[in-house]
Amino acid sequence: MHIEIGLLGFGTVGTGVYKLLELRREKIKKRTGFDVSIKKILVRNPQKQRNVLFEKSLLTTNPEDILLDKNIDIIVEVMGGVHPAKEYIEKAIINGKDVVTANKELMAKHGLELLKLAESHGVSLKYEATVAGAIPIIRQIKQFTVTDDIYYIGGILNGTCNFILTQMSDNKWDYYTALKEAQRLGYAEADPSYDVLGYDSMFKLKILIREIFGAEMDVKDMEVEGIANISRDDVEEAERNGCKIKLYAWAKKEGDKITAGVGPKLFDANSIFSRVSGVENAVLVKGDGFGQQLFVGYGAGQMPTGDAVLSDILDVINDYRFIRKISVDKTEYKNSFTTVAL
């Protein structure tokens, strides 16, 4: 069976998704029985040079070439920003298409209404890639919350900030030199404000709070601070005291009260969090049954995020396999009876 994908956005993450699908297409077909390919890619500028080999005929500047195409089964949104991504996802859902998104800001601000819309139309909306890159934290939390009560989550959720702080510590760079290197390597945007001011971590934390506590937390109730004001002197002072600085996001529930925040935090130099370096993320989850578990992995970059998107695509495909199996099993069950004329 052939599954066709419409890709909205062809920047860093979009090209990563394309590369991974092309690289693993035969393996996916062998393992699942589905041949998965990208049919169309929405871009703003078809003439832009991109660091990937692809057929130019795949590109379109018209979203309706994808959203209204009845042969496209899955929409993958990796554009970023709230608008027009929200409207595109809504239209895809209403047209009966499953959706995979890596858009953390959109899911933080409008995730609940989009999930309800998807449920009402009987389609999937997957968003593993919105939090912690290649770490399958949302999938793991969904499993935890079936049997356990989680009361705390905290972690390093922004790979860009962690990369900058690592360079300031390991290479003795100042903040601006480390930021420029992050931008050169594609870990930071030309305008890095969302990352370095803590908003990116805040969006991810809001998504995790919804998953864990079933609550929509107002950002006004969170204390949010980034790393833009951290100097080389601050890093050296922390190191003299046997510590490292990390941008840490956390949320905890005590009774009916949820508190949460994002900000720089000192960790003992020998702690696990201090050893999380570069673009790595780390997420600590505490629950009443399993105790505590820590997940560490790459949280930024083309391929780690692309891999998280691909994992959601495979989840949708597995749903297709399950539905097809039920349909086949029912047919075989009906055909197992012998018709007798009375």
Return the CATH class of the largest domain.
Alpha Beta
Strand segment tally: 12
The strand order across the widest sheet is 3-2-1-4-5-6
Helix content: 40-55%
Query: In percent, how much strand structure appears in the residues?
Result: 15-25%
Q: Give the total of domains.
A: 2
Average pLDDT, to the nearest integer? 92
Radius of gyration using CA atoms only: 22 Å
CATH topology of the largest domain: Dihydrodipicolinate Reductase, domain 2
**Can you say what the CATH homologous superfamily of the largest domain is?**
Dihydrodipicolinate Reductase, domain 2
Which stretches are poorly predicted, pLDDT < 50 over at least 5 residues?
A: 325-342
Estimate the global geometry from the Cα principal axes. Answer: globular
Class of secondary structure makeup? alpha/beta
Record the SSE blueprint.
Elements (H helix, E strand, L loop, with lengths): L1 E7 L3 H21 L2 E8 L16 E2 L3 H4 L6 E4 L7 H10 L3 E4 L2 H17 L4 E2 L10 H11 L2 E7 L2 H12 L4 H10 L8 H4 L2 H15 L9 E2 L7 H9 L2 E12 L2 E12 L11 E8 L3 E8 L3 H34 L7
Parallel strand pairs: 1-2, 1-4, 2-3, 4-5, 5-6, 8-10
Antiparallel strand pairs: 7-9, 7-11, 9-10, 11-12
Please name the defining characteristics of this protein:
six-stranded mixed β-sheet; Rossmann fold; 2 domains; Dihydrodipicolinate Reductase, domain 2; HDH_CS; 342 residues; metal-binding
Describe the structure.
There is one protein chain. With 342 residues, the protein is α/β, with parallel strands linked by helices. The chain has two domains: 2-133 and 302-330, Rossmann fold (3-Layer(aba) Sandwich), CATH 3.40.50; 137-298, Dihydrodipicolinate Reductase, domain 2. The protein has eleven helices and twelve strands. It has helices spanning 12-32, 64-67, 85-94, 104-120, 137-147, 159-170, 175-184, 193-196, 199-213, 232-240, 302-335; strands at residues 2-8, 35-42, 59-60, 74-77, 98-101, 125-126, 150-156, 223-224, 243-254, 257-268, 280-287, 291-298. The strands form two sheets. Strands 3-2-1-4-5-6 form a six-stranded parallel β-sheet, sandwiched between helices. The protein has a six-stranded mixed β-sheet with strand order 8-10-9-7-11-12. Helix 1 (12-32) links the parallel strand 1 and strand 2. The protein is globular and about 60 Å long. The chain starts with a strand and ends in a 7-residue tail after the last helix. The model is unreliable at 325-342 (pLDDT under 50). This is Homoserine dehydrogenase. The active site is at 204 (proton donor). Residues 136-314 form the Homoserine dehydrogenase catalytic domain. Its cofactor is a metal cation. It catalyses: L-homoserine + NADP(+) = L-aspartate 4-semialdehyde + NADPH + H(+).
